[in-house]
Amino acid sequence: MSYKESSVLITGASQGIGRSIAITFAAKTLRPLLLLARNRANLEETKALCEKAGAKHVEIIACNAVSAEEVDTIKLPDGFPEPGIVINNAGSYLYKPLSSTTNSEFQNQIDVNLFTAVNTVKRFLPGMLTLNRSLIVNICSVGSLRGLADSGAYAAAKHALLGYTRSLREELKETDVAVTAINLGQTHSTSWDESDMSPERLINPSDVASLIVTLSELSERTVLEEIIIQPQHGRVPAM
Q: In this structure, what DSSP letter does residue 137 have?
């Protein structure tokens, strides 16, 4: 199987940015889609939206990617092509200063923002290495690049994800697996549901999705290692 025949795996695809990425791949490509998240009902909704957008083959897997054991036991449906593109979008944002963040809350931020990506890459990297080209995209954050006074545990976890992504890129440089980190600023998603902030002040998730589709179409000679995306008019109050 070649890269062009491979599928796209998207974690955190049940809502928000992950759902937008899935729908955009459905509308702009012919690739089979493998959607991963914990909430099966929401995944079914994403699947229906992808099929409406034009996808011909969409499969869903309800799985808690924090658990290495659950991810290790994932089996692809019969006849479903191996993922050649893995988009680690699953994440969680804790709006809380470090002084009042509990150890369990901190651990949860590390688990969801780092280990969902680590576990998914470990499971699918062997298959990706058999292709003539493949791509891993990790959705990091501008909080990967600087401290955040109002969400320190989140920033620490995203720092770790960026460090992991940079190291993975170095490790895989002599292979045909490209690795990209997207350091994403404030993007309209379900995290803003309780805020009165206008979506017009936030990054459009469709723009993020379209960019990832473009990354997937680069030749095997090229990789965009790291990207920063920000709202045009700058950072808004956190919540």
A: E
